[in-house]
Amino acid sequence: MKKTLLVAALFSAIGAISANAAEFSAVQADKSSISFVSKQMGVAVNGKFPKFTTQLAFDPAKPEATKVNISVDLAAIDAGSKDANDEVVGKPWFNVRMFPTATFTSTSTKAVGGGKYEITGTMNIKGKALPVVAPFTFKADGNTGTFDGTFALKRNDFAIGEGSWSDVSMVANEVQVSFRVVANASASATPAAAPATSKTPAKTK
Amino acid sequence: MSTAPTRYTGTAKVLHWLIALMILTAFGVGFYMTGLKFSPEKLKLYNWHKWAGVTIFMLVVLRVLWRLTHKPPPLPDTMPTIQKFAAHFGHGLLYFFMIAIPLSGWLMSSAKGFQTVWFGVLPLPDLLEKSEDLGKTLELVHRWLNYTMIATVAGHAAAALKHHLIDRDDILRRMLPGKNA
Question: Model pTM?
Answer without folding.
Answer: 0.81
